[in-house]
Amino acid sequence: MLGDSLTAGYGLRASQALPVRLCEQLGVLGLPASVTNAGVSGDTTADGLRRVDRDVPGDTELCIVALGANDLMQMVAPDRVRSNLDAILSRLKARSIPAMVCGMRAPPWFGYYAMSFDGVFRDVADRHGAALDPFLLEGIAMNPAYALADRIHPNAEGVAFMARRLAPRVADVLRRQPASA
Known about the structure:
The protein is of the alpha/beta class. The protein has a single domain, classed as SGNH hydrolase (Rossmann fold, 3-Layer(aba) Sandwich), CATH 3.40.50.1110. It contains seven helices and five strands. α6 links the parallel β4 and β5.
């Protein structure tokens, strides 16, 4: 998982981070997998682009790209977010690494910015034929029961919810891929 604090497990024990929980849920679904945590707190899509070649090994069967939350918080221009994600997926494709994009959504009170920002993730996934999870925080965003004290980052229960929701999508993508040689 190439991501930011949502992947890295900000404010949680390492065993509670999303990659660990996703790995557990894939096992529950009968698809044992190893999920590597390539999340760096504070990273934007530009940061992910700078480190994608270094942090995503060549033998990766699926790179889950979970970036964009910090771009949103910094109100990075949606065209810049699109360009960065497009470049990340292009680099992965050049290395024959399939990708799944986990989208973000801006709060509706962000107006036009929200409409422009929200469409970026589907556009990029469609352009590259990548799988898409439209909103990584679906079901937990702005729900205090699933948030740390900062009211931004998910707590352990929120991450567990994210993993349970995301695992079937990831399993479906992995099962549709041709068997490795």
